[in-house]
Design brief:
This protein is of the alpha+beta class. The chain has two domains: about 10-125, L-amino peptidase D-ALA esterase/amidase (4-Layer Sandwich); about 130-250, Ubiquitin-like (UB roll), CATH 3.10.20.340. About 35% of the residues lie in helices and about 25% in strands. The protein has helices spanning about 50-65, 100-125, 140-155, 155-165, 170-175, 210-215, 240-250; strands at about 10-15, 20-30, 40-45, 80-85, 130-140, 190, 195-200, 200-205, 220-225, 230-240. The strands form two sheets. Strands 8-7-6-9-5-10 form a six-stranded mixed beta sheet. A four-stranded mixed beta sheet has the order 1-2-3-4, covered by helices on one side. A hairpin with a 2-residue loop joins strand 7 (about 195-200) and strand 8. Helix 1 packs across helix 2 (about 100-125) and helix 3 crosses helix 5.
């Protein structure tokens, strides 16, 4: 398991149109985690009866919404695999078309399993003490929202601020600014949990006591509103602690 501290598994039972099947998965990964799955080994199984082409399509769609939206340290590796195996043992008609309720249910179930596994990887990130969920909304497109979110998620200054329990909204806006997405700073809003930090690009009556309460929790939600449109995306990361340095300063293959 290298630097993983525990097993990571998930399963779901899907029921739709009198059809039932199971999707399950396991995953390995704690460091060198960044989009394109990085150093992840993810094995998924299902008893659903589905064509190879649709299984491939569903897997790619689900991975794009989950494993491609996490980062632990911004570092990638040549060793990454997400593999879906279907034995077709479920008593059901075959899934042969994408425009059906059963295929849509299959994608939802697969995405649910992969989301749980992806979050488990982040929670078990090397040296992690905080799980950070970053939602970017008010973007012109979903891709733009994800691009801004991932820029914030991989910012070392944002990650260390969360570790130090510092509600440093400036680092969040800075990371959004160099994301490559054009937006107007004077429209930006930032929230830390239920605490509004920035309104229309300026600090907004920051309650330091409430900020300290939120940052003391294990799960840290951050919301950034770009004030441009209706698109949004959510990504997941963790803080950067002394523990990460300790692990990687002494770990050798």
């Amino acid at each position: 398991m290298t630097t993983d501290t525990h097993l990571k598994e998930s399963a779901v039972r899907v029921s739709v149109d009198d059809v039932e099947f199971t999707i399950a998965g396991m995953i390995k990964g704690a460091g060198m985690i960044h989009p394109n799955m990085a150093t992840l080994l993810c094995l998924l199984t299902t008893d659903a009866l589905i064509t190879q082409s649709l299984a491939d399509r569903a897997l790619r769609e689900a991975v794009d919404q989950t494993l491609h939206r996490i980062t632990v340290d911004g570092d990638t590796s040549t060793n990454d695999t997400a593999l879906l195996m279907a034995n077709g043992r479920a008593e059901m008609p075959p899934i042969v078309a994408a425009d059906t309720q059963v295929y849509e249910a299959f994608v939802r179930g697969l995405t649910q399993v992969l989301a749980e596994l992806a979050k488990a990887v982040v929670r078990d990130g090397e040296g992690a003490t905080r799980f950070i969920e970053i939602t970017v909304r008010g973007a012109a497109t979903r891709d733009a929202a994800r691009q801004v979110g991932m820029s914030i998620a991989r910012s070392l200054l944002v990650k260390t601020a969360i570790y130090g329990q510092d509600a440093n909204w400036g680092r969040i806006i800075c990371a959004a600014g160099y994301s490559g997405v054009d937006f107007s700073p004077d429209r930006v809003g930032v929230w830390l949990g239920d605490l509004e930090l920035v309104r229309e690009g300026a600090p907004y009556h920051i309650d330091e006591a409430r900020a300290a309460e939120i940052l003391a929790q294990e799960d840290i939600p951050i919301v950034v509103d770009l004030g441009q449109g209706d698109a949004e995306a959510t990504v997941w990361t963790c803080d950067l602690s002394h523990g990460y340095v300790d692990v990687n300063a002494h770990y050798r293959t």
